[in-house]
Write a structure and sequence with these properties.
Layout lengths: L1 E5 L2 E3 L5 E8 L2 E12 L6 E6 L5 E3 L7 E6 L4 E6 L8 E11 L4 E5 L3 E5 L2
Parallel strand pairs: 2-11
Antiparallel strand pairs: 1-3, 3-8, 4-5, 4-9, 5-6, 7-8, 9-10, 9-11
Length: about 120
């Protein structure tokens, strides 16, 4: 299963960006999908996650500013990021887990997309 992330870029503080991540391959079902970020010199941080049923979880640092959603028909997860801050600057990775057509479990990561918040 491959994940293709897009939507990163350069934005001024207070601005917004929307990230997308589409899963492709012989997918039977996807359980959780999420976004993880890594800033230079820092550990990876779970930003947000969403289950197949729509339950969400957010890092405290992004609550109230970021919204995760998914389109199950398109096997795609989104991250709407508002009120961006310089400390949100990082490479954002998407991930997903579930089952492929043969019922084997999978866990996949996208290639990462750079988000830079700077004036």
């Amino acid at each position: 299963v491959q994940l293709q992330a897009s939507g990163g870029g350069l934005v001024q503080p207070g601005g917004s960006l929307r990230l997308s991540c589409a899963a492709s391959g012989s997918i039977f079902s996807i359980n959780a999908m999420g976004w993880i970020r890594q800033a230079p010199g820092k550990q990876r941080e779970l930003v947000a996650a969403i289950t197949s049923g729509g339950s969400t979880n957010y890092a405290d640092s992004v609550k109230g500013r970021f919204t995760i959603s998914r389109d199950n028909a398109k096997n795609t997860v989104y991250l709407q990021m508002n009120s961006l801050k310089p400390e949100d600057t990082a490479v954002y990775y998407c991930n997903a887990d579930g089952r492929i057509a043969t019922m084997e479990l999978f866990g996949s990561w996208g290639q990462g997309t750079q988000v830079t918040v700077s004036s």
